[in-house]
Amino acid sequence: MTTPISAQSIKERRAEARAPASAVMRLIWAATHYPPAHMGGSAESIRLQAEALAQTGDSVTVVTPQWDRTAKAEETVGGVAVRRLWPGANCPGGRMP
Fold first, then answer.
1. φ, ψ dihedrals at 12, nearest 5°
2. Rounded to the nearest 5°, which phi and psi values hold at 21?
3. Taking the model in full, what pTM does it have?
4. In the structure, what pLDDT confidence band is assigned to residue 97 with cuts at 50, 70 and 90?
5. pLDDT at position 67, please?
6. Do β-strands 26-30 and 59-65 pair in parallel, antiparallel, or remain unpaired?
7. 65 within 8 A of 87, measured Cβ to Cβ
8. Which of 7, 11, 22, 52 gives 20 to 30 Å between its CA and that of 68?
9. How much is the CA Rg of the chain, to the nearest whole Å?
10. 43-48, long-range: CB within 8 Å, 24+ apart, which pairs?
11. 37-70: b or e for each residue (b if 16 or more CB lie within 10 Å)?
């Protein structure tokens, strides 16, 4: 036989389950293009949104292809961790399909 749960107990459990307002979200954003290699509208939009989230204290990482082989593979720009992966690394013959 189960013990009935009171309405107060349910409210307490829900309150405990909620993350405090100061909780940090860890976000990973996959983007085909990201500055400075690409300065188009979508790349700039992603950069602005990622930096805005980072300014709130959230942990933001953008993963993007390393189209420019001279670009840094890992760096932090505007509070956003940027990881660039060489796109041919997992492709047959080192080329994109």
1. -65, -45
2. -60, -25
3. 0.67
4. very low
5. 82
6. parallel
7. yes
8. 52
9. 21
10. 47/78, 47/80
11. ebeeeebeebbeebeebbeeebebbbebbbeeee
